[in-house]
Amino acid sequence: MRKLRRSVAAVLMLLFLAGATSIPAFAIEPNVYDSKDEAAAAETKVLEESGSRPGTYPVTVSYHEDGKTISAVAYVTVEGKYTVIVEPIAIDAQAIHLRVDEVSVMTNEAWIERADAHAWNMQTLAELPIVSVDASLVKAVPGHYSVTFATVEGVSTTVPVLVSQVGASGENTLYGANNEALGSGFGWFESFGFTVLKVFILTMLLLPLVLLFFQFFLSSKLMKELEGITDRGGK
């Protein structure tokens, strides 16, 4: 009787292991590109689609070269609509919407904050200062104007300024915020799609574990039932 129990247990264990090995593994492997330039372009697109702030980012890329697969760190630059690059210096700012009563109280710091103006060195990734703000063309009268931000080496960018009697529902205090100067966008849709993708990947990773647990539960239950049958048969 004991030999029968051991045999049944061995068969169930083999079935369990066979089922476990048959479940596919959903491992996420890095993309391998045909060249370093192609890899950098693809990673730049990923950053742009995820809504990353304009800037230079270090990313790890994998690509084929001379019959080998190479992994290396590449520096990729996300550009905005008003990004200006004079290598190795880059500067970026966003369009601004102001109310008429805000124009007279705007300081250089306020202009920089509202436009999210910033500059950086594309080689060292160091942030560079905004050394001057020229808002002399902006008047406290409804209309379209411009403001210019400059960093070191005279590198500058000019962005539009919309002045109106009534403020926009979402003023440009943070990069990517909606306002009338920029117009409506689809950032919310891209964010939703990215969230759905993350949920899908997480589900694919957890599914094999759930199936393994379920199979183990059924195997244990079947083993107990067989033991009960053999016990009654022995009596």
UniProtKB/TrEMBL annotation:
The chain crosses the membrane at residues 199-218. Keywords: Membrane, Signal, Transmembrane, Transmembrane helix. Residues 1-27 form the signal peptide. This is NEAT domain-containing protein. It comes from Culicoidibacter larvae.
